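Researcher: We're teaching a course module on how sequence relates to structure. For the next exercise, students receive a sequence and then see the predicted structure as tokens, so they can try to spot secondary structure elements on their own. Here is the exercise chain.
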Amino acid sequence: MATEMRLFTVACLLRRGRALDQLSSALSLLALLIGLAPLLGIKAQPLTALFCALLLILGLGQKYWALRVALDAELFQQLASRTDQLAAHTVDLDQTLAQLKLQPANTPARSWEERSLGALRLLRQQVLWLLAQLLLAVLIVLGLPWLAITG
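Model: And here is the predicted structure for the students to work with:
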């Protein structure tokens, strides 16, 4: 049985996904601004456009995971404050998720230990997408001067 502190701790960890999402959004916005710079009369660079598109795609992938993490953070927070009737709330949650088509109706019941691990897996996915976006941004910053010299 899940304890109030475990649910609260998972909710706190999942809420960290918001800061990750904000960093990714800033990178995506920067990529969008650079990608749209030719509209302001700046000479278009095909390689720069490709890099910006890749940054945006990685940002969208991160955004997908961020939305899932944010939903779980709110659900865990809500349930952490109501552990006295956790079993009943768990059944209600599963029924609601099935009605909204967010989980299959015939999904077997999972323990809160399994749900916690699953939610933290979502957060790790979000981190991986952000890391890919950050790595690409760093490679662009470090690589563009070299590309300008050779190209």
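Model: If you want an answer key for the exercise: The chain has five helices and no strands. The mean pLDDT is 90.
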